[in-house]
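Example 3.2
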Amino acid sequence: MRIKCLAVIIVGLLGVASFAYAQINSGNDSTNANNSTANTTQGSNGSASQSGDAIVKLEKSPIANCPPCPQCMVPKNKRPKAPSPWKGTNIGIGWVKNTGNTVSNNFTGTSNFQYRYRKWTYLGQLNYQRNSSNNVVSAEKWFAQTEIKYNLHDFNYLFWQTNYTDDRFDGYFYIFNSTAGYGRRIVNLDNFNLNLYLGPGYQRLKIRGSNETDSLPVLTAGGNFVWQINKRVQLNETAQTFMTSENIHSEATTALVVSLFEHWDINLSWALDHDSKPQDGAHGTSTTTSLQVVYNIT
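Structure, written as tokens:
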């Protein structure tokens, strides 16, 4: 089942990437088609252009008498660029410090994928953490997540989210969640955004030391906000809770992102994980403090 869960996550990531690639190619094809049509039209009217008929038609067109607008007067190379649909895609590596189930210092790596197309937003996330001391592993955790959002309008959206967690020291062999539901943008300003979401789903898990797997209904609730303090400093907060009849798992991450220069950021984050009914030998609360250097694709 662990391999199947990983397969679902990987297939989801590949599907998102394939869709994004197809949309880019279709956009390029349509641009090339338009250019080809324009060239064909110009060629067929070649004789008219030579005789001056095209110039007369242009002079009679309403566009010829249109007063220049501010946007037209600005050179194309100085006009503001539209936001990239890949904004939010990045990769980071850094140092991590743990308290709770483990106390150590070591390596962490993260990668985030994000693509926007019309009303759709596709997100992917992959995190890895490994701590060791004197060749003894004291922490090892994999986390993968995919999410698809469909915007109903500026403030409401639907979502489908799947995630997989393999934490070597939390008492579980793996935890897999799949949830669909409704989200609401409570605040949607240029420098501040606040989102809340809620939805039912399905959870499958396996406890370490046991050959049996459990399947449970789960209710997921969460939220996030992004505050752009100034051009270089941003504060992010994400939190979500997975509620089942066996346990309530909550996680929250606070991150301060400082832009160094183009494409490069420093990310200082603090994460909290809490289980209402932890497994034997595991702490109910664990924290992770990390400092990462992040490279943004766009």
